[in-house]
């Protein structure tokens, strides 16, 4: 283990915490902005349709390490129902996500990112999610205004999702670095830790004691070499020890 030239961060349950995930509330927020709803679809009906559609695609694509472009999928669903809105779809995606999932910074992340700046370690984000990269950047900018991430790679715009090597390759290519020069920090055993190791990055397992609200916890530890920490303060101490 050596000091990295660059650290890539997972987003959910790593940089930020999501205390609740309420998809029906998100789809209800969408209908609040509908100015044309010829089928008189209700929020409950829209939520059920969208959940079924997303789940069906996830079941087909995720075993292949492929991602759904949720922004385009939403527009297909809205058009099929004849829905029209009083805000652009880009803003509607942001409204839906905010209503679905409030987010807050993980405790200690501000100090850790400041340490990276002090040590001249570059930073960026690699995230698995179906929301667009643009709305992810907007939410990160609002929640972590002190960050200096060079770029954000969202699986929704990468075709591939972690643990695919391709999403890690894209990030290291954008950075102009070899994988061995980089760390990847995340909470998901298979996607983040084993995926990063498979792509040649050093994986850091952020084993946060907070319960994740949107996926079950893996019972088995990563099947690869890695560093495990339970807080950003703990990882900061590890990083300082590499000077």
Explain what you see.
The chain has helices at about 25-30, 45-60, 70-80, 90-100, 110-120, 135-145, 165-175, 190-200, 230-240; strands at about 5-10, 15, 35, 85, 105, 120-125, 150-155, 180-185, 200-205, 225-230. The chain is elongated. Helix 7 crosses helix 8 (about 190-200). Strands 7-6-1-8-9-10 form a six-stranded parallel sheet, sandwiched between helices. It is about 40% helix and about 15% strand.
What's the CATH class of the largest domain, please? Alpha Beta
Quick one: biggest sheet? Answer: 6 strands, parallel
CATH fold-level assignment of the largest domain: Rossmann fold
Oligomer: single chain
Question: How far from one another are the termini?
Answer: 12 Å
The succession of helices and strands, N to C, reads EEHEHHEHEHEHEHEHEEH
| Anisotropy-based shape | elongated
Number of domains: 2
Low-confidence stretches: none
Radius of gyration: 19 Å
CATH level-four homologous superfamily name of the largest domain = HAD superfamily/HAD-like
Q: What does the secondary structure layout of this molecule look like, with pairings?
A:
Blueprint: E1 6-9, E2 16-17, H1 23-31, E3 34-36, H2 43-61, H3 70-80, E4 84-85, H4 89-100, E5 104-105, H5 109-118, E6 122-127, H6 133-143, E7 152-154, H7 165-175, E8 182-186, H8 189-199, E9 202-206, E10 227-229, H9 232-240
Parallel strand pairs: 1-6, 1-8, 6-7, 8-9, 9-10
Antiparallel strand pairs: 2-5, 3-4
Helix pairs in contact: 1-2, 1-4, 5-9, 7-8
